[in-house]
Amino acid sequence: MKAKIKSLEDLQGEIIRLSLQKHEQEKFLENQFFLLKNKIEAPVRIFNSITSSIPGVGFATDLVKNAFSKNPDISSGDLFTRIARIGVPLLLNRTVLRNSGWLKKALLLLVSETAAGQVTKDTVSGALNKFAKFIRPKKKKYKKPIITELDVFEDAPEDHILGI
């Protein structure tokens, strides 16, 4: 509601009143944001508390998080290595080790992860370069025209040929 301002004191009083109202509204919005944030984070906290009690879930979530993160850390390697760390154990578990026990599969997971980590960036880029070289069209080599002495003398004036 607008107050009628007739003097300088009324103006200063209105400025103080509006600044207090602004401060109160900011505090109210901060509290509402805090409550909303806690309400949204509640399911995540419940999920994290459940998964923290299950062994192996932390390892799996870290593996998936590192595999698909846009900004991977140094230890996770390049994209091919990250895909191999997930794909090789799954492939081997479904084919070769289909009827093995969980201990053999767990050991295979660790060994295959180490092996996939040893695939270097040079090996992957070298294979990609060979594949790209195979796919790219070959460049045509143009033969340079052979310039003979006769060609040089045909364009020259007769005075130069005779040496005059």
Protein described:
- The chain has helices at 8-52, 57-68, 79-94, 102-117, 121-135, 149-155, 158-162.
- Helix 2 (57-68) crosses helix 3 and helix 3 (79-94) runs antiparallel to helix 4 (102-117).
- The longest helix has 45 residues, at 8-52.
- The protein folds into two domains: 1-53; 56-138, no CATH class.
- By secondary structure, it is mostly helical.
- The chain is built from seven helices and no strands.
- The mean pLDDT is 75.
Helical content class: over 70%
Q: How is the biggest beta sheet arranged?
A: none
Gross morphology is flat
Taking the alpha carbons of the first and last residues, their distance comes to 109 Å
Radius of gyration (Å): 38 Å
Elements, N to C (H/E)? HHHHHHH
Strand content: under 5%
Unreliable stretches, pLDDT < 50, 5 or more residues? none
Q: How many β strands by DSSP? A: 0
